[in-house]
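Hey, resending since the last one bounced:
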Amino acid sequence: MKKLALIICLLTLNSQAQKFENLAKTPPLGWNSWNTFGTDINEELVKGIADKFVELGLKDAGYEYIVLDDGWMTKQRDKNGNLVPDPEKFPSGMKALADYIHSKGLKFGLYNCAGATTCAGYPGSRGHEYQDARAYASWDVDYLKYDWCDSGKINAESAYITMRDALKSAGRPVVFSICEWGDNEPWKWAKDIGHLWRVTGDIINCWDCEVGHGSWSSSGIWKIINMRKDIRKAAGPGGWNDYDMMEVGNGMTDAEDRSHFAMWSMLASPLIMGNDLRSAPKETIKTLSNKEVIAVNQDELGIQGFRFTNENNMEIWLKPLSNDAWAMTFINMSDQPVDFNFDWNKHNIGDDVNNLYVDMKKTRFKIRDLFNHKDLGTTAKNLKTTIQAHDVVMVRLEKI
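The structure tokens again:
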């Protein structure tokens, strides 16, 4: 009997030492409340966002997670140490809200923190990990964003392992989003723990700026993109480098929004919207619901793209795709339109990390413009176009 008990114990420990598999095989697509609403959230807002997922075609485009960020709970746990949804913001409770979201064919996510308190000063999960995980399971939560504020001197990897094991013990499959801002290089250890891991601090809605907030700062799109080096090999099916929630629709130009969306797709980053979908203009929805661009992000190979060239204010990025295809983006970094002429014969393309190479003189591709939804001929002729300031031409190359 003792031997049997030991075997059961070991099997239990082993099952807890694994994240939920077969989740996030491609980068998660969804929406998070923080970028626009901060802690000013409530159930009517969330229901309205869920309705817009369906109405605007975003669900059909692949978006599925609706994630409540910080501020959904009361400032104190109850007498039994349980988290309490704020009764003024969420009078129907989390289970009813999850039921509504699920009724739309979508999935429900919540936020908490590895520290004693969240970044906005609400109860964190430190010391309550298993209790909180059971609560999430009882509410039918599908996704947990887990932050890193008020974490003191605790070890990041151990803290996230504890919550991973708690989620596994609770029994309901949950996508685990590790949000420790890249401070402890999660791309080196997080793949067995979570399904995505933040690689930078917080994003802000500007092209290439940094905005200070005292002891920390937020970074614009290109500051975020350029912040980390040599991490692309960590990304792949079931585990993703997370470049933070998107700022598409939050005040940049339409051109900058397109470039932002193209780059998050090239980087195989989760595509988590952060704007108010209830009042989003048509051009913003057109960008966010572009199925041809989303297909690049969702490609089954799961290879993160990389910078190919950077010359004369023109950045070119490459991303290998399945079936010997490639995605390629041409981004005008300047403040003026650029007349662009690209000779395919002078630029053999390849990916050293994945040992993929193409001799462009011997191999021809069909060219598909992903934002204008039109074919541009083949690589037998130069690609000639005018790219507006901070705008992008994004193409898919299909082998002939």
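The longest helix spans residues 2-16.

Sorry for the duplicate.
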